[in-house]
Amino acid sequence: MVRRILHIDMDAFYASVEQVDHPELVGKPVVIGGSQRGVVAAASYEARKFGVRSAMPIFEARRLCPDGVFLPVRRQRYQEASHQVMQVLDAVSPLVEQVSIDEAFIDITGTKSLHGPETALIKKIKEAIKHRTCLTCTIGIAPNRFLAKIASEMNKPDGWTIINGEDVAALLQNLPINKIPGIGPKTAQVMKELGIRTAVDVLRFSQEFWVKRLGKGGVDLYERAHGIGPTAVIPHRAPKSCSAEDTFAADTGDMEKLKKWLVCQAEEVGRDLRKHRVKGKTITLKVKFASFKTMTRSTTLPKATHSTRIIYDTALKLLLALKLTEKVRLIGVGVSNFAVGMEQRSLFPNTFLHKQEDLDRALDRIHNKFGCEAILRGRIGEIESD
Ligand SMILES: [Mg+2]
User: Fold this and answer.
1) pTM above 0.70, yes or no
2) Boundaries of CATH 3.30.70.270 in the chain?
3) Is 384 an active-site residue?
4) C-beta atoms surrounding 21 within 10 Å
5) Partner residues linked to 335 by β-bridges
6) 317 CA distance to ligand 1 middle (Å)
7) Which of 3, 1, 5, 2 shows the shortest CA–CA distance to 141?
8) pLDDT (tens digit, 9 = 90+) per residue, 195-236?
9) Which one of 103, 118, 267, 268 is the catalytic residue?
10) If I label 372, which of 155, 157, 172, 225 is the partner at 20 to 30 A Cα–Cα?
11) What is the pLDDT of residues 93-119, one digit of tens each?
12) Which homologous superfamily is 8-162 in?
């Protein structure tokens, strides 16, 4: 059966969420960045007109767009909006794969009898998301993942593009080679040397030629140039690691402040792990100093965990073991090395652990019901332990 894959991408996601929460910012250049000294996390379309782009240093963005509205990253708020978007998508099909905070693939093959023609489905999704979050998105539908992604980039913002099998050949004629996924800087250089600009140019050479030049990537490239690509949509692919990090507004050597941030980050990471029903064995602490020197330290625990408390305790130990000879610019916590499946509670009670699990569950419930700003765990040092 010919598959139909839908790709959805929210428009200028972080910046749009801020414009929803602060309507006075609609139509203004909005730039989201970690702090004065971080990099741009997102820019509204108005800011992009000034040349502001993601990952650009904030000072550079300020130079390009001095009248822009610069806002801190509210990661939890964006997660919340993302969650609402994904809930809308989950109602469309069980085959939804979230690939980033604001992007997902949906396999919509054979859903016509349920949702009507593709144009109707697009309208339905866009309206539901708008209704739920006041946000706009752009949608692409095509026979496979990479074409669907290309389609969703074609009509941004608040647009849509449908690519049918018979349109593919014409599309590839003019498709710039850098739009094909998997073309890194090295391959791009090869392409340039060979005078290849569009996808069809690839077909001037044989598959054997490409395999010789690029190895296995040569097969993929040759297939993409024919419009062939993966179609599998894997629902809710579990992340391989969960982490949270923050750049401070000003460098700090204040241990109490660092601990406070670690609590929040452990909470965020723990909640993420519990949401995905995974536990991890390796806890990593990342510290970037004022001099930009970065250090990471990890501990692998005997037992996998998703407990906020254990993540915090472990990260704190790592922090205390570091000699802080200079002020800290950024701190972060991550959990990786996931164990598969959730284990059952041991029959032999470990009261401390059980209490922590109950506390985590209770806080997660409040969080899910009232949103992330409803509750902030007290300093973990103040939570009773036995
Ligand atoms: Mg986006």
Assistant:
1) no
2) 8-162
3) no
4) 13
5) 242, 283
6) 37
7) 5
8) 999 999 999 999 999 999 988 889 999 999 999 999 999 886
9) 103
10) 157
11) 889 999 889 999 999 999 999 999 999
12) Reverse transcriptase/Diguanylate cyclase domain (3.30.70.270)
